[in-house]
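ok new one. same drill as before - structure tokens go in, u give me an amino acid for every spot. 1205 of them this time. try not to just spam alanines like last time pls lmao
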């Protein structure tokens, strides 16, 4: 038959891809199906899980990355038959069932390479060590191909050795290491090949592409210059580029970790072998062998680093030693003839190459050692297949023996073991007859009765000196095997009926090849080399003349290694790739039906199909089945967890029945569950995968909801951060200031407010107008000087012959200096002067007292004017900014008394005395400061008030913006609401003209928007009804702190006041009633009140004193703010504390803004804004001013001009 393969034409699916579906199961039907598919460029066909590959002898482009990707994660039925599908099934089975796999009987190097390519591509792991393992595993292919493959008559890249590669994986399915085992290197090819074949590829690569340094050092020339590479007459191959392959070999050596020095030694050994082939022997006058060209021998001695005379002697003479009674006898030097000398030369060359190849494999294995714990493995066996030549000798016997053992594994695991398992598991089964080749394996390897290898060893042992006599002895011993039906003796030949056919072996020279020993003369020569690679690495053994132990023969070695291989493969779950040659001419268009039919017969494909069709495609123990598929039944699995507590047999039944698997599709054995068709197990696997996909979808949905919630929270946090980020720096500065004086100085109550912030530039010197502009213009700022703090205060001014007195000043602190600005009158104008600029670098320390005063002494270095004494309400903040600007260099001293230096260096002591008569500020007189008692030094800031709830109930309609009362919506008749409580009437407004202010417009708008205040209520008559008494059971709470309301809807109270709680909210704000008014109060300011038993009932409520008349605006007047912030004014003297009476009109004629009842200077709920320094009981105008810092600077500027008018 001829194939007409046209590229680019879409193929039709012909034949059956799985031959278990053939209508007729005969060898002829199998052959016809394979031919149809091969002619259609479909070279792969299944028999169950066994892959049949028919060699196309051309590149079909079916191993690309695209094709590889298409097989990832697919089962055998989802994609057309392919070697990638077998590799995917093995890798998936290893990961899923945690079983080792062996790709046994692949037979072709190409199939093994594709399996390695696929596993390296699909296995997980992106780390450098795992990727390094993958690269090295793939690099072993070109390296071992160069040293182990050669051109034969049938194949241009024929494996002339067996290789078993174990790829080791961790429990994550990632490759962590590999091990290579070498079998049956055809070392005879080194010294001779038949016509039109070649030596190993590496010799042609080296002679054609060796770099100049190798050519000069090793004397390398073209392959035609060496006997070992030119004898067969084939130097080039059409589809092989030796130069390119040499570069790939060098690259692979680097990948697997061979150093440059190791590479040099490898190529030196190859050069020695090539030059050994050029040693020509001639007969001398005595008929003995002599070297025709001594220069060649001397050059080889130079490469081997041995004596030239010793090399020539070892090649032409043999040392014989006689023994008598266990004692050493005489030593004779026996000359060799030409034939014997050629044999010795060839033996040395073969030994060097074989040992070099074994060393390369060992060295590669060292580089491939596992980088972690190896849990599982996938093995790939690549060994040349069954061989039948015209002249078959010892090499073919060994190769065919190994193939018989591999066939036996195939029979044991796919035919014999399967049927035995059905019987053992009591499964209904129709036995299938098949040929078991175990008898052939025993014929070759058995010791009792002796097989071929045993007879060969006996012949070598009895006639070891004469190879001819040994061969004759072997022929005699083979006569004992004539009773075996699979053996036939034919004189100097014998025939063995292998599973693949009859093979006639030639006995001539078998005994010598079986000895596999090197002459003692050659071993001594190698040991004498000064090259450590030769004397210690390649030839490390030393002969013990007194040892009587027979060294192992070649037959012993191959039998031991083959049995070890079989033991490994029997422990695996093997997948098979059976390769078939369509013709012997390497033609891509010729299909030899007779040749293929013979291979189909001896491979046992027909029996394999019968067993597969009659048997069960899948079987596993009950425990493993339940562990694998418990997810598919609600009785065995829930939420991804195995919840089955019964026996495994019942669990397996539940899973199969729940998924509606037909009863004829599965059977239960005694310990395993059997499933007939692979489609069923693939369906179960698909359901299992979908379960995890569904669970993954649920997790993704929950995760997306979680991420959405996190983003929402992040946006809330960001929104809050943007609203408050500027305050955080102020709070951090405040905390730093508290650390400076914490525990050493009594505190002002104002300093303990939870909302106290170190704002810094209270006078807005940097950006403000009016007064701020005057101060800014008075100071000559240096380059880079920035304002960080500004505040009003006092400084001690010396007077002639009298004590110093405090005088008002403005303090402006920059990042370089402290400026003290004084305001003086020049007629009717005010002039600002930078009285003193103190560089921060000259301030070495600062002193404050341990009491609650406001004095600070700055100790200066070498100042002629002495130290500076300042009085500032925000002294702690002033010191904090100084320390921050100087990186903490200034030392802060806290003492009961302060010593400072006056002008001229005179030392003065400032004393501090506690004086309870002083109610608010301290009083300075003649170096003595009278100070009221402050809060304890270890006082902590008051707790922050919780966020109050919304004042309007859910059922109540939301009111329009503007002043509102949260309790106004309540409808209880006996409960008065704030709208029913009497309120003061507005005082008549005098007509005044005031200076224009940037805030005037906003204040006026607030005044216009506010509703008119109700008229004042007169004192009630005695007969007026009193407010209703609290109902029995209504809880009363006593105030433990005073609280001043700051927002509408809150009510103020003093310490010890009693309040009736109407409603408690979980967020810490309670709705309370006091004196008939309802409003919100913080719960942490109250404690439950238990009235004494003998206390009389509470008196009726008295009339409340009328509050001050309201102004048109709810904001404090600029005059009241100025009087609070600047208690000393501009030399006008500090105002005395006054009771809450209606405020008088300001100097400009505009009525002042009344304060809301109850200031907040002493409450921890609503701290004043920085910029106010009034004592806790100062006027309400100060409270309002510090509560609204955004207009402090402007109101200060305006108040200043109002005062001086």
């Amino acid at each position: 038959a001829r194939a007409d393969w046209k590229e680019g034409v879409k193929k039709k699916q012909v034949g059956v891809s799985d031959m278990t579906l053939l209508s007729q199961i005969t060898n002829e039907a199998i052959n016809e199906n394979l031919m149809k598919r091969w002619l259609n460029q479909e070279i792969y066909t299944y028999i169950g899980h066994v892959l049949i590959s028919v060699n196309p002898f051309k590149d079909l482009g079916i191993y690309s990355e695209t094709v590889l990707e298409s097989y990832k994660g697919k089962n055998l039925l989802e994609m057309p038959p392919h070697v990638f599908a077998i590799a995917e099934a093995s890798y998936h089975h290893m990961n899923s069932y945690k079983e080792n796999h062996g790709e046994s009987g692949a037979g072709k190097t190409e199939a093994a390479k594709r399996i390695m390519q696929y596993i390296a591509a699909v296995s997980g792991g992106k780390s450098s060590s795992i990727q390094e393992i993958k690269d090295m595993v793939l690099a072993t292919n070109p390296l071992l191909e160069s040293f182990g493959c050669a051109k034969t008559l049938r194949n241009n890249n024929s494996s002339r050795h067996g290789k078993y590669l174990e790829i080791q994986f961790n429990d994550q399915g990632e490759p962590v290491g590999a091990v290579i085992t070498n079998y049956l290197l055809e070392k005879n090819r080194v010294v001779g090949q038949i016509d039109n074949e070649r030596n190993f590829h590496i010799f042609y690569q080296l002679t054609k592409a060796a770099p100049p340094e190798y050519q000069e050092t090793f004397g390398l020339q073209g392959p035609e210059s060496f006997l070992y590479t030119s004898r067969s007459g084939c130097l080039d191959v059409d589809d092989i580029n030796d130069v390119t392959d040499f570069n790939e070999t060098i690259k692979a050596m680097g990948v697997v970790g061979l150093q440059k020095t190791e590479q040099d030694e490898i190529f030196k050994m190859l050069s020695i072998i090539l030059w050994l082939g050029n040693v020509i022997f001639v007969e001398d006058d005595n008929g003995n062998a002599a070297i025709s060209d001594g220069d060649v021998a001397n050059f080889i001695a130079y490469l081997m680093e041995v004596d030239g005379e010793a090399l020539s002697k070892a090649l032409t003479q043999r040392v014989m030693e006689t023994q008598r009674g266990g004692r050493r006898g005489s030593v004779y030097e026996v000359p060799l003839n030409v034939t014997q000398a050629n044999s010795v030369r060839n033996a040395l060359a073969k030994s060097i190459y074989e040992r070099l190849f074994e060393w390369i494999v060992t060295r590669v294995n060292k580089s491939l050692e596992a980088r972690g714990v190896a849990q599982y493995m996938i093995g790939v066996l690549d060994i040349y297949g069954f061989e039948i030549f015209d002249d078959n000798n010892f090499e073919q016997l060994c190769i065919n023996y190994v193939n018989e053992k591999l066939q036996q594994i195939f029979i044991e695991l796919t035919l014999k073991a399967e049927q035995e398992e059905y019987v053992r598991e009591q499964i209904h089964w129709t036995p299938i007859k098949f040929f078991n080749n175990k008898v052939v394996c025993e014929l070759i390897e058995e010791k009792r009765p002796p097989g071929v290898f045993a007879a060969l060893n006996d012949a070598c042992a009895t006639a070891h000196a004469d190879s001819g006599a040994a061969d004759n002895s072997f022929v005699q011993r083979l006569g004992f095997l004539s009773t075996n039906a699979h053996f036939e003796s034919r004189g100097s030949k014998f025939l063995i009926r292998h599973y693949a056919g009859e093979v006639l072996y030639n006995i001539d020279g078998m005994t010598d090849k079986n000895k596999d020993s090197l002459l003692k003369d050659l071993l001594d020569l190698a040991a004498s080399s000064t090259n450590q690679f030769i004397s210690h690495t390649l030839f490390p053994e030393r002969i013990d003349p007194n040892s009587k132990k027979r060294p192992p023969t070649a037959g012993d070695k191959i039998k031991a290694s083959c049995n070890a291989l079989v033991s490994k493969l029997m422990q695996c779950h093997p997948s098979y790739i059976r390769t078939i040659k369509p013709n012997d001419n390497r033609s891509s268009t010729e299909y030899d039906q007779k040749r293929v039919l013979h291979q189909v017969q001896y491979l046992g494909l027909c029996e394999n199909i019968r067993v597969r069709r009659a048997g069960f495609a899948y079987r596993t123990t009950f425990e493993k089945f339940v562990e694998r598929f418990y997810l598919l039944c609600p009785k065995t699995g829930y939420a991804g967890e195995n919840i089955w507590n019964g026996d495994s047999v019942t669990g397996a039944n539940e899973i199969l029945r729940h998924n509606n698997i037909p009863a004829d599709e599965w059977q239960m054995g005694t310990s395993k569950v059997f499933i007939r068709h692979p489609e069923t197990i693939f369906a179960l696997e698909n359901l299992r995968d979908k379960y995890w996909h569904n669970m993954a979808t649920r997790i993704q949905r929950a995760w997306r909801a979680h991420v959405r919630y996190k983003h929402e929270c992040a946006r809330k946090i960001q929104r809050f951060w943007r609203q408050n980020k500027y305050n955080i720096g102020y709070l951090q500065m405040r905390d730093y200031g508290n650390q400076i004086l914490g525990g050493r100085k009594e505190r002002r109550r104002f300093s303990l407010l939870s909302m106290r912030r170190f704002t810094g530039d209270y006078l807005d010197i940097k950006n403000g107008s009016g007064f701020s502009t005057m101060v800014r213009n008075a100071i000559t700022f240096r380059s880079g000087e920035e304002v960080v703090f500004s505040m009003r205060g006092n400084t001690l001014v010396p007077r002639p012959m009298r004590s110093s007195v405090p005088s008002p000043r403005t303090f402006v602190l920059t990042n370089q200096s402290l400026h003290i600005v004084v305001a003086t009158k020049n007629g009717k104008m005010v002039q600002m002067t930078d009285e003193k600029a103190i560089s921060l670098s000259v301030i070495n320390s600062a002193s404050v007292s341990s009491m609650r005063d406001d004095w600070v002494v700055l100790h200066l270095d070498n100042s002629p004017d002495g130290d500076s004494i300042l009085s500032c309400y925000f002294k702690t903040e002033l010191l904090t900014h100084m320390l921050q600007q100087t990186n903490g260099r200034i030392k802060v001293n806290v003492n009961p008394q302060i010593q400072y230096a006056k002008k001229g260096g005179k030392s003065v002591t400032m004393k501090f005395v506690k004086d309870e008569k002083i109610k608010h500020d301290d009083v300075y007189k003649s170096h003595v400061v009278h100070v009221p008692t402050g809060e304890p030094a270890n006082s902590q800031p008051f707790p922050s008030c919780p966020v109050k709830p919304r004042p309007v109930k859910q059922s109540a309609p939301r009111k329009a913006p503007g002043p509102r009362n949260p309790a106004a919506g309540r409808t209880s008749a006996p409960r008065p609401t704030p709208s029913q409580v009497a309120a003061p009437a507005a005082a008549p407004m005098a007509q005044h003209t005031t200076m224009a202010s940037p805030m005037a417009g906003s204040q006026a708008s607030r005044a216009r928007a506010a509703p008119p205040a109700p008229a004042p209520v007169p004192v009630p008559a005695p007969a007026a009804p009193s407010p209703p008494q609290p109902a029995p059971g209504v809880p009363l709470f006593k105030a433990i702190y005073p609280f001043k309301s700051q927002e509408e809807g809150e009510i103020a109270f003093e310490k010890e006041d009693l309040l009736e709680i109407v409603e408690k909210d979980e967020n810490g704000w309670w709705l309370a009633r006091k004196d008939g008014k309802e409003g919100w109060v913080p719960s942490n300011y109250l404690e439950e009140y238990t009235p004494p038993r003998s206390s009389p009932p509470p008196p009726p409520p008295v009339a409340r004193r009328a509050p001050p008349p309201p102004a048109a605006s709810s904001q404090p007047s600029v005059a009241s703010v100025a009087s609070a912030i600047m208690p000393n004014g501009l030399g006008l003297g500090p105002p005395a504390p006054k009771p809450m009476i209606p405020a008088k009109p300001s100097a400009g004629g505009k009525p002042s803004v009344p304060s809301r009842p109850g200031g907040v200077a002493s409450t921890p709920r609503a701290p004043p804004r920085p910029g106010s320094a009034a004592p806790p009981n100062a006027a309400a105008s100060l409270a309002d001013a510090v509560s609204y810092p955004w207009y402090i600077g402007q109101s200060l500027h305006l108040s200043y001009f109002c005062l001086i008018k």
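The first strand starts at residue 44 and ends at 47. and btw The CA atoms of residues 728 and 757 lie 9 Å apart.
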